[in-house]
Design a protein that fits this description.
Blueprint (H helix, E strand, L loop, with lengths): L1 H14 L1 H12 L4 H33 L3 H21 L9 H14 L2 H13 L2 H20 L1 H45 L2
């Protein structure tokens, strides 16, 4: 149980289901309930598959491609920034992200499982057993699934005007998260170059 908590808490903080809920609401507020549930399921399955692949093969994939974790942070941040800017600058609702793939990208990745979660998973596998890390990862995905599934009640409480406001705020939050991810990646690259001469 001690090892479970030591792996569960870092993944919980990195995944931040409550923190990304407003962004999820902004992406899906124009969709029907059944379509939202399909997107939720798609996002969790996508996040699970990517997380499990990186849990066992992450370091090998990075090594083969010659990619650093910092590079991954910058790339993920750039994708999120492009999506957030499109949502902020385009007023028409019919120019939203395509619902067929929204659950996979950007919700499943890089929002639910992004550079922070993948990096955390890779570190935890080194510190603890892969089995415990998998259990902690799956437990956090279940929490995220429940959080997203109850989004309808939260959205209903906010009302139509509130949902529109949340949509715009979510886009700004997404832009801030994107910039933060890119900033951390750049800082890591610069620090590595300075320390390496």
């Amino acid at each position: 149980m001690n090892e479970f908590l030591l792996t569960f808490i870092p993944i919980f903080v990195a995944m931040d289901a409550i923190g990304i809920l407003p962004i999820f609401m902004g992406f899906t507020e124009h969709l029907k309930k059944r379509e939202k549930q399909r997107i939720i399921n798609q996002s969790i399955v996508t996040a699970f598959l990517i997380g499990i692949i990186f849990l066992f093969l992450g370091k090998a994939i990075f090594w083969i491609l010659g990619v650093y974790v910092a590079d991954f942070k910058i790339a993920g941040g750039a994708v999120l920034l492009a999506i957030s800017l499109r949502d902020i600058l385009q007023y028409e609702k019919n120019r939203k992200l395509p619902s067929q793939t929204m659950g996979a990208v950007p919700i499943g990745t890089p929002l639910v499982v992004g550079p922070a979660v993948l990096t955390t998973i890779i570190i935890l596998v080194d510190l603890y057993s892969p089995v415990i890390t998998v259990f902690s990862f799956v437990a956090n995905l279940l929490i995220t699934w429940v959080t997203f599934s109850y989004e309808g009640k939260i959205s209903g409480f906010l009302g139509r005007a509130g949902s529109k406001a949340v949509s715009k705020i979510a886009a700004l939050l997404l832009a801030a998260i994107a910039v933060m991810m890119m900033r951390k990646g750049l800082v890591e690259i610069i620090s590595a170059h300075l320390s390496g001469g």
